Amino acid sequence: MTKTILITGATDGIGLLTAKTLAAEGHEVLLHGR
C-alpha cells in the first residue's frame, strides 16, 4: 500500500535521503524546502 508523505527540509541531509528512500519504495513523496 503506497502512502502520500510530506517531507519538510528535503533539500539536503536526512530529509533528502528519506525522500529518496521513500520514493524508491514506491510512495508518493511531497517535498518542501526553503
From TrEMBL:
Looking up SUPFAM superfamilies in the UniProt record yields:
NAD(P)-binding Rossmann-fold domains
- The name this protein goes by in its record: Short-chain dehydrogenase/reductase SDR
